[in-house]
Amino acid sequence: MNSHDAQHLENSDKKVQDGIENMSASNAVNPELTLILFGNRNSIEIGSKNILLDHDQEKYEKEFSSRLYDLLGRQISVVNMLGFPSIDTIPEIPEVHIFILLISNDQQENQYTSGLQWLEKTLGKEHSSYVMTVVTHNDSDEICESELQKLKAKSSFSEKRYHTCTRSMTDTNEIISLLKKIDAMVFESRRMTEGNKINLDETLRIDEETESDNEFQDAVESLNEDDNCISSLVEVNPGQCQSTEKGQKKESANKSKASFDNEDSDMNDDSGEQSKEVGQKKKSGTETRGHVDVKGSQMNDEDGGKKSGINIVSCQPSQKSKILQHQSTQPPTVSGTLNINGSKEKPLCSSSEEEKQILLKETGMLFERLELQDKFQTKLSPAEFLQIGPPIKQTNEIYGNNLAYAFLQRLMMLDYRARYIPVQQITLDVSDSEALQVSKSSDTEKGDFDALYSTNTESDQSNNNNNHVHPMDVQMAVFHCSDSFLKQKIITKLSQCQYALPLLVPDLLSTNIECPLWTFRQITKTWKISTNKENKTTVTMKSMPIYKADTPMVSFFRLGSMSLSKSQLMNALINDRHDTFFHRNCKGSTKSRYLMDGVAEIAWYCPAGKDNDFFTDCIAFCNLHGDSLANVKQREILTEMSSVIVVLVPTLEKCHESSAVIETLYKSSKPLIILSADNDCPAVQMKPQKYKLGLKERSQSDVSEELKKIIKSLLSGPHTSFRLETMAKISGVKVDEDQKVCQNGKSAAMEIIELIERMDIAKIKDTFLPCQGQLWSNWCKINKELHHLKGEIEKEKGQKSHQLMKLREKQCKVSNVSNSKLMRLFTQSLQSLPPKEREYFLTWTQILIDALSTDDLSSILQNYDETWSEILVLKNKHDKSAQLKHKQTELELLSQKLQSATFGLEHIFREMGQIYEAHKSLKKPLLYQQHDWTKYPELAADLMISGHPMELMDGDAGHVPLIWISNLLQEVIKKLGDPRVFVLSVLGVQSSGKSTMLNAMFGLQFAVSAGRCTKGAYMQLVKLSEENKDRYQFDYILVVDTEGLRALELADNATLHHDNELATFVVGLGNMTLINIFGENTAEMKDVLQIVVQAFMRMKKVKLSPSCVFVHQNVTDITAAEKNMDGKRRLQEKLDKMAQLAAKEEVCDVECFSDVIAFDVQKDVKYFAQLWEGSPPMAPPNPGYSESIQELKSIILSKAKQSTAITLSHFSTKIQDLWNALMNEHFVFSFKNTKEIAVYRKLEVQYGNWTWALRSEMLNIENQLYPRIEKGQLDKVELSYLNKEMAKTYEEVTKSMTAYFEDDKDKEMLVQWRGRFENKIKVFQEELVRGVKRKLDEVIQQNNARKMLDKKKTEFENNLLQKSKELAHESKAMAEKEEDLKKQFNTVWSHWVKELTSDTKPIENISLEEDQQLVLQDLGVEWGLIDESRRSKRYKNLSVRGDYSDYITQKKYPNINEESQQSQENKREEDKDTCGRVKALVHKFQNSKNCSSIDAFEISSTTQQHEERKPENLFQYEDQELIRSFINEVEQKCLEAIKSKPVTTRGYTPTYLQELAKIVKERVTEFESLKKFRFKKDFTVDLSLYVFDRAEGWLLNAHKIYRDNNDALTYLDNKKNEYYNIFRSFCKGSSSAVVFGEIICGKLKVSAAEAVCNKTGVDIAGEMRSNFPAFSENRLNLEKHVLASLAEKEDFSRFTTYIRNPRAQVEAFIKEEVKKYMFTTQKVKAQTILKKNVEDITRVISQALFEATKPDGKGNIEMWVEEFSSKLKPELTLDTISCQNFSDINNFEFLKEEIEKGLKSITTEMSKLSLEKVNDCRQKPDQILIDQLCKCCWERCPFCAAVCTNTLKDHSPEKHRVPFHRPSGVKGWHVRGTVELVIDFCTTLVASDRRFYPDADSEEAVPFKQYPTAGEKFASWSITADASMLAYWKWFICHFQKQIEGYYKMKFQGSGEIPQQWKNFSKKDAIESLNEMCSL
Prior knowledge:
Structural class: alpha/beta
Helix content: 40-55%
Radius of gyration: 50 Å
Distance between the termini: 60 Å
Number of strands: 33
Largest sheet: 10 strands, mixed
Strand content: 5-15%
Number of helices: 67
């Protein structure tokens, strides 16, 4: 056996063992069994591994199966009768046998029919009832459904006798399942009696039709032997009981009636007698089978008809007997029976064994009926019910098979009606029903009237009853099939429903008694004790875990049979309005039950501290179900533990079986109360603590009142007390906590508890959890202050940042000292324990911690309650005395004490988070770190996934630990794969039942108790079940539970801010928010609604759109429709009013709530009944509450179905975005949707790809058309043609866009931009097409302008060619001497040129410098000024100059301070009239508390007299900026003007410069008129020269184009070399073909080189666009690389260019990087691209030559040239060639060869093309990339002038945004009236309390926090506070401090002094900070 086989066998053995355990109940007693296989041979694969048949022998003999013995441990034989052998070869049929018919999957119907026919024909028809049909299939096949349906249609087919299995039969699970079905068949065969007129086949069919479990409904006739007063065991022969005399039936029934007139009869008063077996359904009469134990016939008082505690089973025969032969027709019978006369045969097995086995069997059948049979071993777990499954079935949809799950679902929702759920019956057809009744009537041979009086129980009602399962059987079956944690949950919920809980539970498979102590551990009971002292009533509240409570216990026993219900009597003592204990009169009670006998249930009475309390203290009541005479062990245990014993007996006669027990109890010291059923005496005290009370003819209320008095009296004196924990010490009781896995978890928890158990509870957190105490509180406080800086912002920020790091260091230190032992133990246990033990560990830890704090918390809560009540009284009296203040102070101290004393698991998890955050915040790990904090998020993630709630917001500090939460969720994402979650949050007032509602709705674990329940916010994942996932677009619901609004503990002045903060946070987080309103207090509602409406309004303004549902709890009479409508109307009115109020505060236009959020008052408001049905603590939950929960859940899920929800990663970023915005106080202007920004940036990258695809295709089209136009072969380009050429690429791009928007994982967020981007692409394509058309039209226009020259060109070329020919003919003698040839040619060339251009005037070069000087002098400028400016070249840097004060003189005013108000207003009007062109960019920074503070940062243009000041102080910063903006504006205006002139087509004229000079002069005059200063003449001169200088390059280039295209001399000069070569060729005697070939090669060389260079330019641009990091993404990415490059070079001049003219620097960066790429870093790649393009063009030329040269040689030279040119297109365009001098060429093959020779040299030359040539071509790579990358937004921040980084030029309505904001001093901003440069970042200022003046003439300062309200230029920007974390500009200021100060003639001093922390940043830090900012 190899290792694989060994492993397989080991796995198989394990499966087998599991299977055997599952079969334990049914296989307890199994006789030898024989399996007879018959059917088609092909239906089974016989082999050594086949478990059922491992040999292929046809002996047809019975052979013992060793494989089945090894598998099951049973004696099973197999007979192989496959192949349908003849009858003479068939062996004897054994006594216990089953036929197995094997049929193939694809031939089920045929083989089934033929198989049964063979069996009936060969062995007899009666054997067909003992056939198990097994359909075999291959491993990969599925069962053929069509064949199966045909099979089901067969009347003989029964699904209970149907099984599927693989042909190989090697799967142990399949074989085990088959054997289980076979055992059920064997059992049925034993049950059949001789007189049965129905066979097994029919029985099984009836079972299926009714879906009932007959074995569980079998009733036993009880015979009460009154004369013997004892129970006797009677054996009855079922066959003999079936008498032909119907009177005997009646007698049997009458006898049985008496036995049910007792307490345990489950029948209702009118339900009739129990006298039948389930066999009645099988028309078997009233047969009585097995052994009847009269003593056990007593029925349970609360269940009614359980079968007397006895069990029925058939005994195994002592020897083999051949029951079935070939000809046998008699079915199996049962041995050991009693004949009719009572003579008893010796049974073959003991009755106790029979009882045990029948109980096991019936229990197993019950579990099967409830579909729990597989869960008895594997167990149900809470995880199965913590899922969002299909909706809870309505009552009319519940059948027996889903009863258990329905019970659990409803119980989890606190519906106490879960204990009885009506089960729907499968009704028969009416005609069938009538036929059945008629047949019964005829069967009894009675008339209709006789039938009326018949006691025959064969009625339809009895059949219906058999379909019911006893409610307590359902509860206990679920209990037995649940694991420890689900049991605990069940018991906790039962306790909340005020039901009794199982205290002692008999083990189903052994005689053990188990106490489920673990299940009680999470139950807490609260009660109030009222005491009277000195005529004053004092109420003391107690709240504690029930397992710790010391209470008296009153136990109730029943000894014998009674008519009075013990459980009903107990209910009257505890809660007369609620059935705490189930009893026979409860709804749903049935005649039989199986799982409650011997179970002891316990319930506690908890007083409310009121006068009508039944008892004054908490009392435990215990109820032992069943006859206590039979349950001796349980009775003795409870007797020992009870304080008072109450015994119910039918009689007090000595001869009664109970007398011995009564005597023992009477003699014991325990207080005893005896209730006698046959006595009517009143309560009598027989002796001290011993009472007797008669029940006969007494009402239950009388009895209960007397009992209360006696019990009160007994408990008022000394008595023993009971404590649940002590159950673990009782011998003979097995406690569930003794399991090893539980003990291991407890041991680990105890290690932690031992550290803290002797400490003051209020000091535990400070001692062992120091990171979350004062250190964390201080950190939160400083962090909030960091977002609200005042004064010297950057200095203060630096100090606070340093403080934060110091606090983190302290946290690290304290987490590593000795006090960290608790955390180390805790985290080690989480890490090392297996999942189950870890769950026990956590639960034990919480349980034990809660136990420590119980007493302290109860005392504090009571004091708190009393103090608060006193404050309310004083407030109602309007008492404002010192007493009120004193009480309020006292209340605050109690609140702090309560907070200190509150200690739970959440605090340990919080400490984990703080330890993690502290270590994570420190960049360098400390040396003394000891434990592995890096694992903490993973540990917490495992717990969150398993269903534990995790703290989202720290309730004590009021802060979200962002680092911890982010990493925790990241770990969850790693484990789950970033699932989609629907976030459901809840908001409401304190103690309004939010957590209770969520727990009931989803089965969650949020903390619930009175007072301050939840603090902060918690989140918990709830998974969607597999069957439910397809219905929704998400995987989990993430529930966020929050603390209550308007919490009493919070100080009044902080309440509103805290509530607004919390509401905004949770509303922003949720896809849906439940608004929980409690009661009908309109004032309270108003406060809550105002907070909520304002939160929703904020969400609308930041483009978040959550939905909401209002839950109105604790509303009386919720069924009144009119009242609900009125309530909704009032709610709508309040919401609309609150919306209007909130709109004023949030400054937006809103009329009603529906303007804020989609809200339908009819659908989105849900009214809840009050939670409790009565007054706590004894009131059960209101069933109406549960119904409301269910309806609300349906509403939530229906709304969720329409939502796509969000990914968990998006949720994580959303938390950070919301919290950061809240920290900055002004939420709307501070909110930054990080996820949305990230998605948008990704979209920008895609947009770049799409536009590049269009641009590159258009470049290719341009490259094809441009040469043709240039060479005059195309004189018109239509838009339609260009669009047609672009159509394919445009279609591909649009398809790519559609796929991206529809398939991307963030498609829900992308949809908001889809229309805009689709339109942008469309516009881009249209602009691209129009741009290329415009460019080509210019070329066409130039061609048209030179038509005269073109006409001459043809003439010139023909003349030159002819003259060259003639000259060559004359000069052939000189052909061998090159110099002579050149000399001769040069001599005649000048003559030819002169001759050809005799009538043409040459175009001369232009002299711009001379023209500029003349133009300026004409305007009155002195030559000296012009000359000085030219020599100094100061004009060249005019736009980037730091200071313009040298150009300024102040205007003179008589008295500037007396300027009239009117003139000021006129001036403002003038400013407005300029339309913002020269509007002042003015800011005033000022302390918010003192607007006139001289220390404030002010920049303003107020009217002041400063004539005595130094020049640098005369000029304010805003004026400097205005002049710089003015210069740039004039430059752009002039360049636009000059570029509009037709220089390239008509040439240059000096009037163009005159026009520019005029524009400059006019604009200067206009600018001066609006200012209080004027420019010196120097400025006008310098500005004019500056503009000329900027226009010079364009003018020279344009004139050169004009000259090249229109000057004949230039044209001829360019042709000289070409014609010299022709001349030389002719001189050497070359033929016309050779010369023509040279001419063509010459033209090819030029065209090919141009095409290669242009194509290479486009390809290099494309390569860099795709793969070069700086160019491959979006605009932000490009900006990052530009800044990084500037930092690397450390060149201040480049920085100044970037600051003043960012686009110029970006273009310079692109050119520089392209150059570096082509000539340095990627030179090889660039050359490879060039080489490839050379090869491609060469291939095109060769192919064109081949195709143009036809084999037949037909045609002339002109036709050949035309053909050749057409074949070269579109890749290449050949210049026009005149063929009139080469008409003699007719050998085109020879011409082709000549051209090919020349092509080789062309290829060689092109391969040597340099990359410089590419860079000089028309399609320059750098210019292509500039066009692609710089067509974006260049708007600048109104504060710091940082450039918007949006990739789209016009991206409205998206606001301008940039993460690289900078200190304003970088741009030269300084404090008004000083030389102090500003160091504040605008991203810091927008979170500060400072103000600024938007314009020079602004009279009111605007708070920075509200900067968007200052005007459009501010509102168009999104500047979110980032606490100026960007290190880049801090490094820049420190590194270039002197250069900056020199450039601006300012200083970093005073308020602008550089913080010391800035100087610690290195260049590396600066560059890395760019990456960090881009990733945000």
